[in-house]
Amino acid sequence: MKNGTDSFVSLVHWPFAGSFGFNTDILATNPINLSVVLGVLIFFGKGVLSDLLDNRKLRILNTIRNSEELQGGAIERLEKARARLRKVEMEADQFRVNGYSEIEREKLNLINSTYKTLEQLENYKNETIHFEQQRAINQVRQRVFQQALQGALGTLNSCLNKELHLRTISANIGMFGAMKEIID
């Protein structure tokens, strides 16, 4: 350190030399060179550096202002989106409730329709059974009647002789004649 202070002190006492030379002592020349360069930079670069810093400050302030405006717009859009989301959620809930009630109504309508269809089928079944019973009863009646008629004809044919047969025919013709006179 003594060399560093000695070199500054010795600057004042330098004798004027007639020749130019290089000082090879690095520790003595670096502080001098640095102080000269810093002095020149401060003297000439103060305005440029001040302008650069002012421009940088303005750009930063503009960026902050733009960011705040964008943030305000984003917050406003976010609130609008939240309001739309709440509205859509309420509509979805309403559709869901309406859908459930519509499903219940359709379910009840389907059940009622099924019951009506079952009643109609039951009625058709009962009518068909009744019709088939009547048809069977009529068929039995016809057979009984045919058998009774055949039995009566057989009995009549076996019991009637020619004379009795002629008297029955004459009596019937007489009855028809009397009926004809009444009608005319």
Automatic annotation (TrEMBL):
Topological category with respect to the lipid bilayer: Single-pass membrane protein
CDD domains hit by this protein: ATP-synt_Fo_b
Subcellular location: Membrane; Plastid, Chloroplast thylakoid membrane
An MF annotation (GO) of this entry: proton-transporting ATP synthase activity, rotational mechanism
Keyword Chaperone belongs to the record: no
Keyword Ribosomal protein recorded: no
Transmembrane segments: 32-49
Pfam families: ATP-synt_B
InterPro entries reported in the protein's UniProt record: ATP_synth_b/b'su_bac/chlpt (IPR002146)
Primary location: membrane
Keyword entries, A-Z: ATP synthesis, CF(0), Chloroplast, Hydrogen ion transport, Ion transport, Membrane, Plastid, Thylakoid, Transmembrane, Transmembrane helix, Transport
Cellular component GO terms, alphabetical: chloroplast thylakoid membrane; proton-transporting ATP synthase complex
Coiled coil: none
Function: F(1)F(0) ATP synthase produces ATP from ADP in the presence of a proton or sodium gradient. F-type ATPases consist of two structural domains, F(1) containing the extramembraneous catalytic core and F(0) containing the membrane proton channel, linked together by a central stalk and a peripheral stalk. During catalysis, ATP synthesis in the catalytic domain of F(1) is coupled via a rotary mechanism of the central stalk subunits to proton translocation.
Family: Belongs to the ATPase B chain family.
Quaternary assembly: F-type ATPases have 2 components, F(1) - the catalytic core - and F(0) - the membrane proton channel. F(1) has five subunits: alpha(3), beta(3), gamma(1), delta(1), epsilon(1). F(0) has four main subunits: a(1), b(1), b'(1) and c(10-14). The alpha and beta chains form an alternating ring which encloses part of the gamma chain. F(1) is attached to F(0) by a central stalk formed by the gamma and epsilon chains, while a peripheral stalk is formed by the delta, b and b' chains.
Misc. comment: In plastids the F-type ATPase is also known as CF(1)CF(0).
Protein name per the record: ATP synthase subunit b, chloroplastic
Organism: Lovoa swynnertonii
High-level lineage: Eukaryota, Viridiplantae, Streptophyta, Embryophyta, Tracheophyta
